[in-house]
Amino acid sequence: MADFVLNTLNGLTAGALYFLVASGFTLIFGLMRVVNLAHGSLYLFGGYLGWSVADATGNWVLGIVAGALGMLVTGVLIQQVLLRPIQGQDLREALVTIGLSIVAADLLLAHYGGVAYQFTTPDAISGGTDLHILGLFYPTFRLFILVFAAALGVLLWLMLNRTRLGIIVRAAIDDRAMVSALGINIQLIFALLFALGAMLAGIAGVVGGSALSLSPGEDGRYLLASLIVVIIGGMGSLEGAAIGALIVGLVEQYALAYASTYAEILIFAIMVVVLAVRPQGLLGRPA
Amino acid sequence: MRRRRLLTSAAAAVLALFLLTFPLYGTDFQVVQIGAQSLLFGVVALSLVFLAGYGGMVSLAQAAIYGLAGYTIGILTVSHDAPGLGIGPFVVTHPYPWWVGVLAALAVSAAIAALFGLIAVRTQGIYFLMITLALGMIVYFFAEENYAILNGHGGIGGERAPTVAGVAFTQPRPFYYLCLAVAAVIYLGLKYIIRSPFGLALQGIRDNPRRMRALGFWVEAHRVAGFTLAGFIAGVGGVLGVWYYQTISPGSIDLTRTINILVIAVIGGMVSFEGAFLGALAFTLVNNFASSYTDRYNTVIGLTFLLIVLFSPNGIVGLVQSVARYGVRGLAREPRADILAQSSSPGGAEPTAALPRKEEVDTTVES
Questions:
Q1: Do the Cβ atoms of A89 and B343 come within 8 Å?
Q2: Which strand (E) or helix (H) includes residue B80?
Q3: Long-range contacts of B177-181, Cβ-Cβ distance < 8 Å, separation of 24 or more
Q4: Cβ of B298 and A106 within 8 Å?
Q5: DSSP character for B88?
Q6: CB distance from B298 to chain A under 8 Å?
Q7: What value of ipTM does the predicted structure carry?
Q8: How many other C-beta atoms can be found within 10 angstroms of the C-beta atom of residue A141?
Q9: How far apart are CA A263 and CA A249, in angstroms?
Q10: Phi and psi of A135, rounded to 5°?
Q11: Residue among A83, A89, A218 with most chain B CBs within 10 A, to mutate
Q12: Contacting residues of A for B363, CB less than 8 Å apart
């Protein structure tokens, strides 16, 4: 029973982390039809950048800010310099982001090397917390991730559903040409959303790097997580990303605990079932 | 027209002569590291060029299928006392004859490809790319974490090319000729297939699935068949690859290797089968020679890839064609098929794709 509670918590926190990464991915995809295959690279780059700043200043919060702002700027640059000239050619855009991910992985390896980096988190969210259930203690930082991801998810939901920007974004998802014709600077919206998505990847990099560690190859892991989450949850849907992330996180942790090396097969099976029944994903809309 | 055909045949004859006699004057390094490696990369890239160029399906699962063929060879042909590295104490391998391993490897790759095809073919364009990438990465992480059959991170080593009728294919020159023969058979076979009714239907589906469906073609079945064939070819590449490296591990099918196949196909140009081999040669040369000048050869490869995707959609082949056309007809260029410009709108062919786009919004009409 205690094991089950711990595994469930592990699954929930893993899911929370996947949601942080995948939310940016799905937002960018939903609005712009850009599959940003460099999303994992943004995660890793944001994490490394945050680590450098946190290491230099001794302040973990500054690390998060650095990871977020750094990726925000990187995202704007990628979108404006590389993707805007080929806008609308979605396959070519995906290939450009693949090219970026090769270069990014190599340069990050050159600068940070192959070793794993770990963060020192603030005392307030370090150590363990008494759960008052079965006398269990659980790492405070993992609980923090859960709260943090939930808060961020609510903020994003409010932004999309309760603000003028959100109305424009949702309208643009349905009909970009019409929104543009109504006098709205759609290019500005694209840049903003891409920056936001990249920023979320950067934040996730620091948070995820603090929960586990940062090393080469993590870019691929979180790119895969983002892909599976949006394939299961529905491409372009924020709520879908949340559900998809929870499913993937929970299944992965239960599999690790009870069927050790077959987690991937289970995830694969879920993906197959979802695609067979609902090709557009659980909450996705037909393409 | 006749003169052009004559020229083409003459060029092909010279090229064939060169490829056949190359081992007579090339060094071992050139014959194996450049020659055989380019040919086997070319075979794997061919599977993608066929899928993408003729089926309109840009797949990122080819490396995984390549790897599964290699693992099958490892499990079925390596004997426990083989001198190779990396055979863990947990993995059971069986020293069956080489041809059992090859047949099984090809069957496994075709079967896995058929399964992946069934999962992915209802989607198109970037959706297809995403799903096949996810499938490929799932195989990678499975290989990384499964110690019971695949020996986890270390993989399975000790696969050796067989000795048949006194010819040891582990030797540089026999192995080169093996790769050349296999590459030639697959190249010519694909050339034949794309002109067969099946190949023509596949190209029709690439251009306009909706119209093909209206004409009575079973679109999904053609796509699955195309994907299975491509998987079979990737499996052939996997057999050659595992004999070349004499080991197979998750590192052979990670994200970088997965993307490398795409890089080779794109550098060559995803419009012709020759491009696959040109791309493989360019890639092999950069890998071998750039690595002696800089440690950042992956950056070189990535930047080359970026430049080609942005500026020369049809790769080296496209560049050569533009230059040739410029020489022949001046600037009056024909509109080329640019498969990268395709959109994944459900209507299939998009009329605006071939035209230069304005910087404004996407005007795709969801009809």
A1: yes
A2: none
A3: B177/B23, B178/B240, B179/B35, B179/B36, B179/B39, B179/B40, B179/B43, B179/B240, B180/B19, B180/B20, B180/B35, B180/B39
A4: yes
A5: -
A6: yes
A7: 0.87
A8: 22
A9: 10
A10: 65, 30
A11: A89
A12: 88, 177
**CA dist B269 to A194, B8, B189, B274, B314, Å?**
29, 19, 19, 9, 4
Whether residue B364 and residue A261 make contact (CB cut-off 8 A), yes or no, is no
Q: How far is CA A236 from CA A17, A19, A165, A226, B31, in A?
A: 18, 13, 17, 12, 49
Is some CB atom of chain A closer than 8 A to the CB atom of B251? no
Per-residue pLDDT of chain A (287 residues; tens, 9 = 90+): 788 888 899 999 999 999 999 999 998 988 888 889 999 999 999 999 999 999 999 889 999 999 999 999 999 999 999 998 888 888 888 889 999 999 999 999 999 988 898 888 887 787 777 777 777 888 888 899 999 999 999 999 999 899 998 999 888 888 888 898 999 998 899 899 999 999 999 999 999 999 888 988 888 889 888 888 988 988 888 899 999 999 999 998 888 888 767 777 888 888 888 887 887 888 877 65
User: If DSSP codes are grouped into helix, strand and coil, which group holds residue B357?
Assistant: coil
**Locus of tokens 């209802």:** B122
Suggest the residue from A25, A90, A187 to mutate for an interface test with chain B (most B CBs closer than 10 A): A90
Across the interface, of B146, B266, B344, the residue whose CB is closest to A261 is: B146
Are B178 and B240 a contacting pair, CB within 8 Å? yes
Residues 115 through 154 of chain B touching chain A, CB cutoff 8 Å:
119, 122-123, 125-127, 129-131, 133-135, 137-142, 145-148
Burial of B175 (0-12, 13-18, 19+ CB in 10 A): buried
**Distance set, CA B179 to CA A193, B212, B282 (Å):** 49, 37, 17
Which chain A residue lies closest to B137 (C-alpha atoms)? Answer: A224
Which member of B134, B146, B361 has the closest CB to residue A227?
B134
> Which residues, 6 or more positions from B215, have their beta carbon under 8 angstroms from its beta carbon?
B204
Testing the interface with A: which of B135, B224, B309, B367 to mutate, by most A Cβ within 10 A? B309
Q: How far apart are CA B150 and CA B35, in angstroms?
A: 30
CA A13/CA A252 separation, integer angstroms: 11
